[in-house]
């Protein structure tokens, strides 16, 4: 059975699809590159270890380390949504990833950090945990905005999303002591 569509039109169509895919890939790669270092902390558990007072109870130290290990694991999973596929073809998966992975894990991180209210932390770690909470909140709000942008298939939120990335990167610098 022969096709009604002439071969040059088929080749042109395939070529356009390939070029469009490459252009989207370059865009996604550039966004990923901007996010590549976000969420990377020099020392997640204690910061500058010489500045931290000792814990009053060994059990409190173990609980803190357990929570912070889980926090780091969830942060890695939440940041795994990048790069976000903004094409119409990838829209449903992107929305699912942002909602079910990004927003979910940032919300879960806020919940597990709240568990640290139950223990007696040295004052430097109380401040550090607060910075981690602010970092999680910024990421959660950013994911919510990304979800909205993908859902509406709109670039109207790009500047706000970039502003969130800037604030998130600044928070990482503060957490890292920079």
Describe the structure.
By secondary structure, the protein is mainly α. It has one domain. The protein is 69% helix and 0% strand. It is built from 5 helices and no strands. Helix 2 runs antiparallel to helix 3 and helix 4 packs antiparallel against helix 5. The longest helix is centred in the N-terminal third of the chain and has 29 residues. The protein is elongated, with a radius of gyration of 21 Å. The N and C termini lie far apart (68 Å). Keywords: Membrane, Transmembrane, Transmembrane helix.
Summarize this structure briefly.
With 178 residues, this protein is mainly α.
List the helices and strands and how they pair.
Layout: H1 7-35, H2 58-79, H3 91-114, H4 123-151, H5 158-175
Helix pairs in contact: 2-3, 3-4, 4-5
Identify the notable features of this structure and list them briefly.
mainly alpha, 5 helices
């Amino acid at each position: 059975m022969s096709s009604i569509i002439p071969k040059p039109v088929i080749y042109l169509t395939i070529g356009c699809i390939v070029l469009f895919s490459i252009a989207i890939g370059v865009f996604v790669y550039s966004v990923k590159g901007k996010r590549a270092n976000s969420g990377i902390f020099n020392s997640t558990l204690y910061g500058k270890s010489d500045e931290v007072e000792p814990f009053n109870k060994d059990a409190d130290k173990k609980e803190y380390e357990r929570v912070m290990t889980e926090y780091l694991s969830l942060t890695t999973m939440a940041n795994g949504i990048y790069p976000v596929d903004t094409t119409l073809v990838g829209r449903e998966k992107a929305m699912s990833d942002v909602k079910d992975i990004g927003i979910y894990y940032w919300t879960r991180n806020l919940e597990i950090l709240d568990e640290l209210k139950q223990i007696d932390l040295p004052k430097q770690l109380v401040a550090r945990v607060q910075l981690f909470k602010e970092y999680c909140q910024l990421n959660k709000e950013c994911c919510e905005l990304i979800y909205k942008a993908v859902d509406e298939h709109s670039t109207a939120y790009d500047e706000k999303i970039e502003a969130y990335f800037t604030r998130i990167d600044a928070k990482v610098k503060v957490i890292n002591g920079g």
